[in-house]
Amino acid sequence: QVKLVESGGGSVQAGGSLRLSCAASGYTIRPYRMGWFRQAPGKEREGVATIDRYDRTAYADSVKGRFTISQDNANNAYLQMSSLKPEDTAMYYCATSSVTWIATLSRGNYNYWGQGTQVTVSS
Predict the structure, then answer these.
(1) Is 31 exposed, middle or buried (0-12, 13-18, 19+ CB in 10 A)?
(2) For residue 99, what are the β-bridge partners?
(3) Are the C-beta atoms of residues 34 and 21 closer than 8 Å to each other?
(4) What is the pLDDT of residues 97-118, one digit of tens each?
(5) In angstroms, rounded to a whole number, what is the distance separating the alpha carbons of residues 85 and 106?
(6) Phi-psi category of 86—alpha, beta or left, where left has phi over 0 and alpha has psi -120 to 50?
(7) What's the half-sphere exposure (Cβ side, CA atoms, 13 Å) at 103?
(8) pLDDT, average across residues 51-56
(9) What H or E segment, with its residue span, contains residue 79?
(10) If we measure between CA atoms, which residue out of 39, 58, 65 comes closest to residue 97?
(11) How far is Cα 75 from Cα 55, in angstroms, rounded to an integer?
């Protein structure tokens, strides 16, 4: 049974940093792609960053230069978030995808999801 568990969320002041972790288990074959999404109250869930099996990455414009996605060989993904802004406040989710042909940040292309971890940035 596939399971994704996020951790590392919390409260931080603007300008601060947080590192989110996502532990993926239950895969017989390593997921091709892992992604991070976020959802603020009253807003749609949006893609933040994605990484494929070859460590190729893509980011939403709103986080480029501030967030870094990475992974290890144990099916764990990470999101290093720096220079955080109040508008980064959201529930953050990790997800996996089998899409190979594009560095997708579209939630419809991801089929397994974690329960989320809350990030709150105060001004």
Answers:
(1) buried
(2) none
(3) no
(4) 998 888 899 999 999 999 999 9
(5) 23
(6) alpha
(7) 15
(8) 95
(9) strand 76-81
(10) 58
(11) 12
